[in-house]
Amino acid sequence: MTDSPTTHRFYGELAVWWPLISPPEEYEEEAAFAATVLRSASIPVSEVLELGSGGGHNAVHLKSDFALTLTDLSEEMLEVSRQLNPECDHHRGDMRTVRLGRSFDAVFVHDAVDYMTSEEDLRRAVETAFVHCHPGGVAVFVPDETRETFEPSSDHGGNDGADGRGVRYLSWTWDPDAGDTWILTEYAFLLRGTDGSMRVVHETHRLGLFGREDWLRLLADAGFEARAVTEVTSEDRTPRQFFVGHRTT
């Protein structure tokens, strides 16, 4: 992919700020819905592989239901996750190429899949899910956006830590060219240290944007029986599309 997360300070030196930028408790409802979709496999689901697990904030909620193996491209984000989820197995790897030499009852890919900015990158990530999925198992992909529902947007937030640190951020997402497969999100962070000192960080992230039929086609090409499930959420946002692949053989 053109814009690798490993080039972002967000997932490198700033990874220690992740629990204040996007706290684990904000993932509870979506993780609960994801668990119901993961259980739609035709076999019992006990072992789940998460590709692009980041700081482990989905895992915090899923690990009570499943034995989790977590992979991410960023060693710094994996270290954040290890602190939250010491009972889970962690492996560094790119979702396009990682091969763990075993398969799982289900594979879960949350919004880290957004960093697949070309169809070839997305195809390779889907293939990774397929080769790690037991026959009868399921793979679940949850992009933040699809072509059909995308609208330019902005967001803001942040939290304070018990140690005196604090974060405030602004994000702005837009599409420079509707004819390609990526969009941009601009991030601005204000980071307050324990001594009260302030830093300002700006980053640009290139993110993939694909249509519903693109997702279903790529899942089918990999060998999955593909369908889309609309998220049920109480959050004030457009429900996400969960793209679900059932492996039959």
Describe this structure as you would to a colleague.
The structure is a single chain. The protein is α/β, with parallel strands linked by helices. The protein folds into two domains: 179 residues, Vaccinia Virus protein VP39 (Rossmann fold, 3-Layer(aba) Sandwich); 55 residues, Single Sheet (S-adenosyl-L-methionine-dependent methyltransferases), CATH 2.20.130.10. It is built from six helices and eleven strands. The protein has a seven-stranded mixed beta sheet with strand order 3-2-1-4-5-11-10, sandwiched between helices. The longest helix has 13 residues. It is globular.
What fraction, in percent, of the residue positions are helical?
10-25%
Q: What characteristic shape results from the CA principal axes?
A: globular
Number of domain units: 2
Give the overall pLDDT as a whole number. 96
CATH topology of the largest domain: Rossmann fold
User: For the CA atoms, what is the radius of gyration?
Assistant: 18 Å
N-end to C-end Cα span: 29 Å
Please identify the top-level CATH class of the largest domain: Alpha Beta
Provide key terms for this protein:
seven-stranded mixed beta sheet, four-stranded antiparallel beta sheet, alpha/beta, 11 strands, S-adenosyl-L-methionine-dependent methyltransferases, Rossmann fold, 6 helices, single chain, 249 residues, 21% helix
Question: How are the elements arranged and paired?
Answer:
Elements: H1 18-21, H2 28-38, E1 47-51, H3 59-62, E2 67-72, H4 75-84, E3 89-92, E4 104-109, H5 119-131, E5 133-141, E6 153-157, E7 166-174, E8 182-192, E9 198-208, H6 212-222, E10 224-230, E11 241-247
Parallel strand pairs: 1-2, 1-4, 2-3, 4-5
Antiparallel strand pairs: 5-11, 6-7, 7-8, 8-9, 10-11
